[in-house]
Amino acid sequence: MSTATIGPAAAPSRRLRPVTGLRNSFTLTWRSVLKIRTNSEDLIGLSLQPIMFLLLFTYVFGGAIAHGNVQAYLDYVLPGILVQTVLFATLGTGLMLNQDISAGIFDRFRSLPIARWAPLAGAIMGDVTRYVISVVVTLGFGMVLGFRIGTNPIAAIAGCLLVLAFALAMCWVSAWIGLIVKTPQGVQTFGFTAMFPIVFASGILVPIPTMPGWLQAFAKANPLTLLAAACRGLMRSGPVAVPAGESMLWALGIMLVFAPLAVRAYRRKT
Amino acid sequence: MTAAIEAEGLIKSFGKTNALAGVDLAAAAGTVLGVLGPNGAGKTTAVRILTTLLQPDGGRAAVGGYDVVTDAHRVRQLIGLTGQYASVDDGLTGTNNLVMIGRLLGLSRAQARARAAELLSRFDLTEAASRPVKTYSGGMRRRIDLAASLVGHPQVLFLDEPTTGLDPQARSDVWDMIRVLVGDGVTVLLTTQYLDEADQLADGIVVIDHGRVIATGTPDELKAKVGGQVLEVVPADLDRIADVVAILASSTGDEPVTGPGARQVTAQVPSAALLPSIVRQLDENGIELAEFSLRKSSLDEVFLTLTGHRAEEDLAMKQTAIRTDDVRERASR
């Protein structure tokens, strides 16, 4: 072999240093971000989806729901679409993990002397970039349509951060599905089947009082309802503290349940 | 010489399937060990255990003297893996794949770039370096896989069916690369279904079938084990094939094989002294000969004798399976 620039030293080290694990995770985060940049299809889909939903909801349902006042409906629905878009974007985490496993990339990582948890951490950290893109596109296009921040920029940013924090909790659900389902198609089917009732049986797109009583109970407790309400409060007007606090409690609860499940499924694969 | 790879009594089952039922193997440092076996014999399971991807249910294995279970992190610093299962990222360019692995192995950004460029040029991929790997041909793909496993200068390289599905030119390119690595002192474990591949490259061979080692030795030892010589007979009149089979069966004591295209009969010959009597019998029965030749048995016959079936049959099945998978994969995109 040509003289190694690094190569294995004569005596390989017994254990991995924790700081090395962190470095490994950053390298794999770089990889995820690079993939977003080079995968133009994903990037276009990520941007077009919120634009499509905004246009459809504002102009198809807006008139009916807000009795002809499209502007009022846009102000109501934009925080909701923000929540929905980022939620859909979390599906990408599970999808990518699943593809990595079925394509054998995970086995390559596992045969390398790197931290076992680095590929999982890298996938999740890299996906935060996707969530930020979704948030920026939704908010930006909403403003093109006439949405205005009624509070102040700091509050609006706080609203976006709430959504991102919630997405970070939800991506563990997605990661778990990605790790237990056999094919990428399966991830998509399961993910969307689970997400649609949560998205639609909520107060993010329509006001809850029009729903039957039993559904109202579900919709009111739905974390998406709470999260969208908190965002509305932070971007337009309305209560903030209670829905924000409750939605973050939900996020914490989801994370506490699904992060260990995902890590367990991951360990089983590795 | 110290053993770079050694395994004793490896056992692994998946549900009710016994993938490995007690496999022993060893490779001395700087040699090539060929692991031969039909589809589903347990070759890949053995590789996955040796490369720390899978834990054995029983037995032990060590690479570079380190136990693959208790000292897995050390083992990973010594090995490189290329195979059906360890792959590169389709969505990244050739350069970025190699840079990523370099960074994961602790190289600085500049070192990782330099190492990537060096490997890309060595594997003749410089022109494709900035293209996503999904645009690569099968042969290029195999080369980038191989390059990826070499970033960390491994001392022990595991190649799981490195040439399956490649055209002859690409195969011989991969063989040349393996020879260069071995020349540099790398120990290679190679699984294959191609007997000529093992014959060409391997210093030692382990034949696995149904999770058990059924033979070990050098290629020559294995060939000798099976009786040494093979007689091939082609009658001028192909209608007489059955008579040829009967004569060879009675005089050699072996069960003759017909093929390809039912025009040739081959049988193991325990001793060349039998030949005159065989020729006489053929002549007495009025069988005219188009071909009559004696040669050393090939590994294919060794395989047939040991496993009761030919390697090519498995291979053909496997290639059909791979093609079906390809079609399915494409259809689902």
Write the layout of secondary structure elements.
The complex is a heterodimer of chains A (270) and B (333).
Chain A: H1 18-38, H2 40-65, H3 70-103, H4 105-110, H5 118-145, H6 153-180, H7 184-200, H8 213-221, H9 223-235, H10 241-269
Helix pairs in contact in A: 1-5, 2-3, 2-5, 3-5, 3-6, 3-7, 3-9, 5-6, 6-9, 6-10, 9-10
Chain B: E1 3-14, E2 17-28, E3 32-36, H1 43-50, E4 58-63, E5 66-67, H2 72-78, E6 79-82, H3 94-104, H4 109-122, H5 138-150, E7 156-160, H6 168-183, E8 187-192, H7 195-201, E9 204-209, E10 212-217, H8 219-225, E11 229-235, H9 241-252, E12 257-258, E13 265-269, H10 275-284, E14 289-296, H11 299-307, H12 311-332
Q: What does this protein look like?
A:
The complex is a heterodimer of chains A (270) and B (333). With 270 residues, chain A is mostly helical. The longest helix of chain A has 34 residues, at 70-103. Chain A has one domain (18-269). Chain A is elongated, with a radius of gyration of 21 Å. Chain A contains ten helices and no strands. Chain A has helices at residues 18-38, 40-65, 70-103, 105-110, 118-145, 153-180, 184-200, 213-221, 223-235, 241-269. Chain B has helices at residues 43-50, 72-78, 94-104, 109-122, 138-150, 168-183, 195-201, 219-225, 241-252, 275-284, 299-307, 311-332, and strands at residues 3-14, 17-28, 32-36, 58-63, 66-67, 79-82, 156-160, 187-192, 204-209, 212-217, 229-235, 257-258, 265-269, 289-296. In chain B, helix 9 (241-252) packs antiparallel against helix 10 (275-284). In chain B, the strands form three sheets. Chain B has a six-stranded mixed β-sheet, with helices on both faces. Chain B is of the alpha/beta class. The longest helix of chain B is centred in the C-terminal third of the chain and has 22 residues, at 311-332. Chain B folds into two domains: 3-223, P-loop containing nucleotide triphosphate hydrolases (Rossmann fold, 3-Layer(aba) Sandwich), CATH 3.40.50.300; 229-296, Alpha-Beta Plaits (2-Layer Sandwich), CATH 3.30.70. The chains are: A mainly alpha (270), B alpha/beta (333). The A-B interface holds A 1-2, 4-8, 12-16, 20, 23-24, 27-28, 30-31, 34-35, 38-39, 100, 103-105, 107-114, 118, 183, 185 and B 48, 51-53, 66, 71, 73-74, 76-81, 83-93, 96, 100-101, 103-107, 111, 114-115, 132, 148, 152-155, 181, 184-186, 332.
